[in-house]
Amino acid sequence: MSDDDVVLMEVDDVQPVSKPAPATVAVKATSHLPWIEKYRPQTFADIVGNEDTVSRLAVFARTGNAPNIIIAGPPGVGKTTTILCLARALLGTAFKDAVLELNASNDRGIDVVRNKIKMFAQQKVTLPAGRHKIVILDEADSMTDGAQQALRRTMELYSSTTRFALAANNSEKIIEPIQSRCAVLRYSRLTDAQILAKKYVRKRTYHTPRKELMLWFSQPRET
Ligand SMILES: Nc1ncnc2c1ncn2[C@@H]1O[C@H](COP(=O)(O)OP(=O)(O)O)[C@@H](O)[C@H]1O
Ligand SMILES: [Mg+2]
């Protein structure tokens, strides 16, 4: 994101940050978006920190040869953001039809795997050459064991058409057969210096109207 892309607007309807809306919300209509979406980086270049992992993913995106992945790490370090950037880079305009985004902490049971995920995996979608549909499972470590076993079978069954990208706080809570089918990538916490070094974060802080800043600081956040 360049400095010019940062458009600051009044936020008069801020939603709680702890339960983000689906991240596929269009970024253009920014006035009513929670900040977690409004400032979510759209490309790998704007993701701060964890450079080795991000550049590895950028190679997957360029070659199109992406494995199933698990990104594990503490809250708020860019796991969901990274997965969305990867899906966007791989699929371009097909993103809308070729991505199923689930928050596994709401959709954590076996029925979701049997119904939503399986149905999506079976659907025919027009894709760029060599690309796959992508199922994003946020907070996958909160899925029940039964759901994870079903997921493992679905991963095997549809491996020729569908890739899975899981985000988790704790990868140990994901069953071993799923871990062994994924590249497991670990994100570490960002330092204050890393966050402040990012130009648009600085600009955002300098230019943000006081009212908006007060709203931001008064919101509950995960630690
Ligand atoms: N590494 C990062 N680089 C830039 N922005 C980030 C990064 N990590 C988090 N953010 C900011 O915090 C918000 C939440 O990040 P998210 O990817 O949802 O975190 P996680 O999934 O790890 O909990 C994003 O919308 C983005 O604005
Ligand atoms: Mg997340």
Write the topology of this structure.
Elements: H1 35-38, H2 51-63, E1 69-72, H3 79-91, H4 95-98, E2 99-103, H5 110-122, E3 133-138, H6 145-157, E4 162-168, H7 176-179, E5 183-186, H8 192-197, H9 199-207, H10 210-218
Helix pairs in contact: 2-3, 5-6
Bound molecules: adenosine-5'-diphosphate (ADP) and magnesium ion (MG).
Adenosine-5'-diphosphate binds near residues 39, 76 and 81.
- The H-level CATH homologous superfamily, spelled out, is P-loop containing nucleotide triphosphate hydrolases
Proportion of strand residues: 5-15%
The tally of helices reads: 10
Backbone shape: globular
Ligand names: adenosine-5'-diphosphate, magnesium ion
List the strand order in the largest sheet: 2-3-4-1-5
* Number of discrete domains: 1
> How helical, in percent, are the residues?
25-40%
Overall pLDDT: 81
Helix and strand composition category: alpha/beta
The CATH topology: Rossmann fold
In CATH, the architecture is: 3-Layer(aba) Sandwich
Q: What distance lies between the first and last C-alpha atoms, to the nearest angstrom?
A: 26 Å
Radius of gyration: 18 Å
Biggest sheet details: 5 strands, parallel
**Count of DSSP E strands?**
5
Organism: Leptidea sinapis
GO molecular function, one term: ATP hydrolysis activity
Family: Belongs to the activator 1 small subunits family.
Pfam families: AAA
